[in-house]
Structure formats: C-alpha cells, structure tokens
Structure to design on (487 residues):
C-alpha cells in the first residue's frame, strides 16, 4: 500500500526520479550468435547461402533460395559460468543454466514453370520467431576493505558524499533517502550534515546481480528468384525485449571493535529493474550467384525503433545490534516510457562451393553503436545521447564457417565468430568470441542438426559511482538441437 501511495504522488507531480542512460542504449542494441543449429554451427556465416529458415533474420534473400516448403524448430541448452576479479579478490564461478526454444520457422515455397511465368519463377513466403540475444547471467563479487587504505570507496561512503549539503527531505529517493530512513546515515548538527553509522573498522562488501530475459524477433519475410541466379528478399521484423535485473550490495562490520558506538551490524541495498517492450524494423537482402561455385550476399537492416516500458524501485535493510527487528524502507515505484533507435546494420557475405560437397562461407557485419538514440516526450535525453556518441563506436563482426558432406546424409560443420567491442577509446573490452561445431543428418524429407557453441566474453563492471573496477569473464557452453521436415 505504501508503494502504491508513493506511486500516485509521483504520477500526480509528474516528477521523474530515475532516467535511462547510455548503458540501456547499448544493452538493447547488441545481439549475439543465435539461429538454427546448422546456422550456428557454421559460425552464423550464412549471409550468401540461404535455404535456412532462421537466416531470414540476417539476410532476407535466404528465403528465396528454398524450393520446398519447410517447418523447423530448435531447442537450446545453455550453461553459463561467470568469474570475477574484484579488488584483487577472485570470486568463484557462478553457473546459470537455461533451457529455451530459440526459433520456430515456416517457409512456403512457390515455384513456377519458367515457360509459363518467365524469369521470375519463384515467390516464397516465411513466418517465424528467432532469438537475437539472451540476458541470463548471475554475478557475485566479494571483498574486504581495509581501513588503512584511503583509496578504497565502499558504498556507505558514497551515501555520505552524495548526501552532503542536501536536506534530508531532498535526498535521492532511490538511494540516500533510504539510507537515512534506515539510519545507515543520520543527520549531525543540522538537516544537511551527516554522519555514517556504517563507519566500520573493517568492511566486508558483497555484490550479487541476477539478470534474466531475452530479445526475440517475430518476422514476416517475402522473397523472389530471378533466373535462379539472383535472389531477393525483404523481412519485416517485430522484435520484443524482456529484461529483469535484481542487484544486492551489502556491507557489514568485520571483526568490530568493542568501542564501536554505531552498533550497526550490516546493511543491504537492493535494486529492481524490469523492462519490456517491442519494436519494428525492415531488412533488405540479396544473394547473387557469380558462378556455380561462388555466391555473394548483401543485407541492410534499418534501425529498429523500440517502445520500452520500465519499472524501477529500490529497498534497504539495516541490522543494528541493540534492535530485535531489522529496519526496512523502500522507494517509490518509478514507471518510465521511452523510445530507442538501435543502430543500422550492413552485412556483406561470400561463399565458396567446393565440388558440391563442401562450403566455406564468410560474413562481415558493420554497425555503429554510437548512433543509438533514446527519445521521450517527457524527458530530455540530450546529455544521454551525447554520452552514447562519446562512449561507443562502430564495430565489425566477423563470421567464418564451413561444411563438408562426408555422406549423402551426413554433414560436418565448424565455425568461428568475433564480435568486436562497442566501446570507444578502449574504455572497456566487451568483445565476444564463438567457436562452433556441429553435424547434420538427413533422412528422406526430415533433417536433424546438432551444434555446440563455446563462447568467451570479458568486460569491466562498476557496481556504483566511484567503485573499483570488477573484471568479469563469462564462458558459455550451449547445445542446440534443430529438427524439421520439407514438404
């Protein structure tokens, strides 16, 4: 009830307490390696090949290479491990296992007799669902601050610094006001001067983050073929985003002194973020057979426009030695609607067919994360969009894949993909590498594909303003099984 009353007050005042930033623009603009098992097993290098339903989310021209109807789907199992290095302390791996259905696709192929319909003798239609990114990850950090090290900056010190010279009734509703209401900080000789009850002799700090959700795309695709040499396609994509993040930062008094007068054992600060929304984009593509053995592909993705809805609230709990009950307070519920334009993408592809038994394919993607833009009718994001331009840059993604048919019914596949870091001026290394292996089996009109994906990514994490850098290394192993039939 308290949260509902606070929310009503905020809505009546029209006052925004929390604003989106450049991190949100990057998070929802990025994509990772997803698709059918055959597509992924070749490192996603399918831009000039086609005849794979999930590739329509990358190069729409792929749909026009189908000569039969097709229905297919996939199941994915992921095992993600994250290891952190924080303040010279290495923290254990944290496992996050998920089971999902990353794609379901249907293609209707209509092939006409060239003598009756001329050179444009194929008109295909496709509809389906493809995963574009996955947000599931758990992170854990822990470190003990030494009172002798003045360079260390615990969260309790941030509360005092931010509250300084601010009247208690004007404190930030999502952070410092909670610290005041739970007596983690308290006034000292006035309404805008504070002391910290968390001035521990030694401070043990822990941080937990649990992220979940995904970015998926429902699409409608159309394609046509000219003389079985030029293949054209267009896809209208309707991506959707679901993202949740819960963080907990706690600090406690490690080996407290008997002279400690604060009697504060610990406090725990939690944030809760929930984002959902949908968007629309247009993708155009072509595939051209230079000869029987060489194919070229090109695709252009317009910026995706998203309309996103966000809910954000925080809470704090403090534990005092001389009190039986914990002190607890929570913020108002912040609700925000805003728009996001993600970067455009350009893809060039080249494939070599080797004696109709093997394929070597290369895809090169280009996009500029600095062009992402957040918009709103109720808030000015000029400064945020400046930060987007300053912090992010253009990036290139390289994908290489191969397939070899060792039997008319059995194929082996392998691939590699490198997603370049989006950060400018070496601010952060958030590149991603993928190594993929797979095999495919055809039995009459049925096909079964299996892929194993091993990925590695590194990035720096700052859990609050002024905190030391935490280095996060994530390893993800996936098993992807696809099955379908042609009719």
């Amino acid at each position: 009830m308290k949260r509902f009353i606070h929310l009503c007050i905020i809505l009546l005042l029209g006052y925004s307490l929390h604003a989106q930033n450049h991190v949100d623009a990057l998070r929802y603009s990025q994509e990772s390696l997803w698709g059918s098992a055959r597509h992924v097993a070749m490192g996603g290098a399918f831009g000039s090949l086609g005849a794979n339903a999930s590739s329509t989310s990358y190069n729409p021209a792929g749909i026009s290479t189908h000569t039969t109807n097709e229905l297919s789907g996939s199941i994915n199992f992921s095992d993600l491990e994250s290891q952190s290095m924080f303040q010279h302390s290495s923290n254990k791996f944290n496992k996050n296992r998920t089971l999902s259905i990353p794609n379901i696709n249907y293609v209707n192929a209509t092939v006409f007799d060239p003598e009756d319909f001329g050179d444009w003798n194929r008109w295909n239609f496709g509809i389906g669902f493809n995963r574009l990114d996955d947000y599931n990850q758990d992170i854990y950090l822990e470190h003990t601050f030494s009172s002798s090290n003045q360079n260390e900056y615990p969260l309790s010190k941030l509360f005092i610094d931010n509250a300084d010279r601010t009247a208690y009734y004007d404190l930030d509703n999502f952070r410092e006001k909670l610290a005041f209401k739970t007596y983690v900080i308290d006034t000292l000789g006035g309404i805008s001067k504070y002391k910290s009850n968390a001035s521990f002799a030694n401070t043990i700090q822990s941080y937990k983050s649990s992220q979940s959700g995904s970015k998926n795309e429902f699409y409608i695709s159309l394609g046509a073929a000219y003389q079985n040499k030029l293949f054209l396609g267009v896809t209208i994509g309707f991506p959707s985003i679901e993202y949740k993040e819960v963080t907990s930062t706690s600090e406690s008094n490690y080996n407290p002194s008997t002279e400690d007068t604060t009697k504060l054992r610990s406090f725990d600060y939690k944030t809760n973020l929930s984002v959902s929304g949908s968007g629309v984009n247009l993708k155009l593509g072509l595939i051209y057979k230079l000869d029987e053995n060489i194919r070229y592909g090109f695709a252009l993705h317009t910026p995706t426009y998203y309309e996103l809805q966000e809910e954000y609230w925080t809470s704090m709990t403090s534990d005092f030695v001389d009190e039986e009950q914990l002190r607890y307070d929570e913020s108002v519920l912040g609700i925000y609607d805003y728009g996001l334009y993600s970067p455009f993408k350009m893809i060039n592809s080249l494939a070599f067919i080797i004696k109709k038994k093997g394929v070597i394919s290369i895809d090169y993607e280009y996009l500029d994360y600095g062009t992402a833009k957040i918009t709103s009718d109720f808030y000015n994001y000029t400064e945020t969009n400046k930060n987007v331009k300053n912090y992010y840059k253009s990036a290139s993604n390289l994908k290489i894949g191969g397939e070899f048919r060792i039997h008319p019914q059995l194929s082996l596949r392998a691939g590699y993909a490198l997603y370049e870091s989006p950060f400018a001026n070496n601010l952060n290394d958030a590149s991603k590498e993928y190594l993929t292996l797979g095999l495919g089996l055809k039995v009459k009109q049925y096909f079964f594909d299996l892929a194993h994906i091993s990925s590695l990514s590194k990035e720096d994490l700052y859990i609050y303003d002024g905190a030391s850098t935490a280095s996060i290394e994530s390893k993800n192993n996936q098993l992807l099984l696809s099955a379908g039939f042609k009719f």
Notes: The CA atoms of residues 293 and 354 lie 7 Å apart. Residues 2-13 form the longest helix (12 residues). Confidence is low (pLDDT under 50) at residues 1-17.
